[in-house]
């Protein structure tokens, strides 16, 4: 049996609007693309991140953008 392969670059595991925090799995290049939206920090292991969204951005829009990241146009 073949080993499973990654299906997408980004997967959100939690989006906490009341704290402006998003937890997600991401490739390092994808995570660096999200730095414009706030503070991106590795969390638990190298491919898991916490993003504290800058309050100047609409939290729901940032979540929607990250969910669509890498999707076919």
Concise structural overview:
This protein is an alpha+beta fold. It is built from two helices and four strands.
The main sheet comes to: 4 strands, antiparallel
Strand arrangement within the widest β-sheet reads 1-2-4-3
CA-atom Rg in angstroms: 13 Å
Helix content: 10-25%
Q: Provide the number of structural domains.
A: 1
Distance between the termini: 32 Å
As a percent range, the share of strand residues is 35-45%
Question: Could you characterize what this model shows?
Answer:
- This protein is α+β, with helices and mostly antiparallel strands and 73 residues long.
- The protein has one domain (10-68).
- Helices cover 22% and strands 38% of the residues.
- The protein has 2 helices and 4 strands.
- It has helices spanning 28-33, 59-68, and strands at 10-16, 21-26, 38-43, 45-53.
- The chain is globular and about 45 Å long.
- The model has no long low-confidence stretch (mean pLDDT 93).
Summarize the helices and strands and which ones pair or pack.
Layout: E1 10-16, E2 21-26, H1 28-33, E3 38-43, E4 45-53, H2 59-68
Antiparallel strand pairs: 1-2, 2-4, 3-4
List descriptors.
2 helices, 73 residues, single chain, alpha+beta
